[in-house]
Amino acid sequence: MKELILTIHIIIASFWIGGMLFMVLVLSPYIRKLPESVKAYQEVGRRYSRLGTVIGLPLLLITGILNMKSFGFSPIELLKPSTVYTQTLQIKFFFFLLTSILAVFHDFYLGERSHRSERIKKITRAVGVANLVIGIVIIYLATKLRFGG
Q: Which of 6, 55, 66, 120 is the most exposed place for a label (fewest CB within 10 A)?
């Protein structure tokens, strides 16, 4: 069962990070050239937000907690980590909470307003890139955990 939960967790994380990488590296350069780029950004953003933020992030939290339990750790241990492994897990969880907050802010506040001014557009882009970087840090921490912490 723990293999299944971990597999689901990895698939969802791949979708989350892969989606952000796809948008930054492939989709955005193409959409910027379209005559109705604002409309295209908003449509793609809404679709990805529903899947990635509204469904994906809660599922990552649930499967992450289930993974912790299957590896013999309690979420309570994150409050006072006693080993290198639980310290890394605490940091990973902190970054997960941060990326979740940034995703909600980016998707449901900034995204809808980004076309109103150049300033908001730049902030939206910066928050999106910051979220991608945090996501990559989370992947690094997950890899570190698989090697013992």
A: 55
